[in-house]
Amino acid sequence: MSNLVTLTIASEAFLLLSFIMIFLSSRNTKKNVLVVVLLIIGGAPLLYLAIDHVKSEYVDANIGLGLAFMFTWVYSVIAFIIAIILLVKKKRNNTISKEQ
Q: What is the 3-state secondary structure of 10-60?
């Protein structure tokens, strides 16, 4: 059970890190509201199923928990790639504006 908790915390932390990077790259309040909503959508299934798994001891494999981990990991990777693209784009715009 401790491996599950560690893996859940690490997965949620990586998801949160990705969205913090997106938040820092855009200072638009409309986009920030969307970022918070997307963060909740990405993290809620894993948190719900991890808590459910801890509270009720399943005899067989919990396929839903595995799918929730896969969803969160794929969602985190996509968010991380978008965050990197936004940060690079912001850095380029700052460099171009300083040169002129």
A: HHHHHHHHHHHHHHHHCCCHHHHHHHHHHHHHHHHHHHHHHHHHHHCCCCC
Token pair recorded at residue 39: 């963060």
Q: Which two tokens stand for residue 50?
A: 């991890």
Residues 6 or more apart from 83 whose CB is under 8 A from it?
18, 19, 21, 22, 25
Nearest to 11 by CA among 63, 79, 83: 79
Prediction pTM value = 0.80
**pLDDT tens track for 12-54:** 899 999 888 888 887 777 778 888 888 888 889 888 888 887 7
